[in-house]
């Protein structure tokens, strides 16, 4: 009964508050339905803050609120305050779809940054695999959006044919990746302090995507063996940072690992900072590989359930076009690490960028903020 009453109250507040006057200089940002300061909305929010905007951030709880930088106002998800500020803001920035009860009215701008270069089929291209309530929300989200942000010619085309969207696309790169185009030695120290990591250990970031059943049995990497192989190939002692997808971050404790070798970083809010702190990446089908490409660091793919994953939604293109070699078991992963060739990886990455039109300008957040200011002048 309490849940029903909460939904009724929430929906009524959206209807009432959406009729209030808008404040052009106020922006409400959100990442992955209430995560902390992270992803492209954080980069855009930071840029808007520099330009004098009031920036609010929707959070799930106190932990997420504590991640916000000074000057950013936390708003508890679905609270009366959050609904009020969203309804009266001049700008929304989000990395995921908004639910169908969300109301955008009047002179509000909604920027949809999305959350990654897709490998598996998504949205309209995977409609049969998606829940009806999500499809309904996605269609409305695209109707409300004034701008989608893209990092490539390929993603722009997917927006136009598979997102129920026929509006403007800004192809400037993902704002979250601007940080990767700059030197940030202080961030490595920040990550090590936050995760209690020794200064002398090299870091492998293991960041796989989630599976349809949201189970963890598929994450069967032999971390100790992997760390030894990395030491043999690149030198030094290695620690693995385990960063699970936000959808299953709470399940990290279910994965067996040696705490002397693996550190759980699943709750660390900003994966871009982990990219900068790490010396190599291990992933599977996740779009993190395409972000990490901007660093030029070694990347390895471990895909031990290829046919099952392909049978879920299938892929947009042949995986052989990926700039990184696929390994399907721990033997193959160890061999890939030992035989890593830096020049070969760089050549494959450049070929991939050219074929798919990938670009990371390093100034995407500025481009989005410029677009907002120009539109608000009209």
Blueprint (SSEs and pairs):
Layout: H1 2-17, E1 23-30, H2 39-50, E2 54-59, H3 62-65, E3 72-76, H4 80-88, E4 89-94, E5 109-112, H5 132-144, E6 147-150, H6 153-162, E7 168-171, H7 185-194, E8 202-206, H8 223-234, E9 238-242, E10 262-264, H9 271-277, E11 280-283, H10 288-292, E12 299-302, H11 306-313, E13 326-327, H12 330-338, H13 342-356, H14 364-377
Helix pairs in contact: 1-4, 2-14, 7-9, 8-12
Can you give a write-up of this model?
Helices cover 38% and strands 16% of the residues. With 378 residues, the protein is an alpha/beta fold. It folds into two domains: 13-178 and 362-377, CDP-glycerol glycerophosphotransferase, N-terminal domain (Rossmann fold), CATH 3.40.50; 183-356, 3-Layer(aba) Sandwich (Rossmann fold). It has a seven-stranded parallel β-sheet with strand order 3-2-1-4-5-6-7, with helices on both faces. Strands 10-9-8-11-12-13 form a six-stranded parallel β-sheet, sandwiched between helices. β12, α11 and β13 form a beta-alpha-beta unit. α1 runs parallel beside α4, α2 (39-50) packs across α14 and α8 packs parallel to α12. The longest helix has 16 residues, at 2-17. It is a peripheral membrane protein. This is CDP-glycerol glycerophosphotransferase family protein. It holds the Pfam family Glyphos_transf. Belongs to the CDP-glycerol glycerophosphotransferase family.
